[in-house]
Amino acid sequence: MNLVSVRIITASIDAMVTFYAQVTAHTARWATPDFAEIVTAGGTLAIASERTAALFAADSVAPASNRSVIIEFQVDDVDAVYARLADHLSEIVQAPTTMPWGNRSALFRDPDGNLVNLFTPVTAEALARVAR
Asked: What class is the 1-56 domain?
């Protein structure tokens, strides 16, 4: 089994796609006006408008209602990426900080309030985990 993608359902698809294209420095691929994907080497972030919610079971998804998932991107230099993005972020949760498990992380919220973590492994142990 492989994790292929994570999908965000949003009421603000244009703002969310623009935001994640800027964060990842990847161009979004639009399949329809209601669905876009940002494909990275590690997986795909799918972003769909709330109009697609009708395709799922009733009340199974609700835009901008998550407080339990962190969307994480590994980057080569979290401090450099943070510096590039900081002026464009509306809610910074944590400036780059080295965490006890060896990643240097920056946390902020996307336009829907989802928590985003950019991280760079910086200790030998953290580097060994990602080398697996």
From this structure: alpha beta
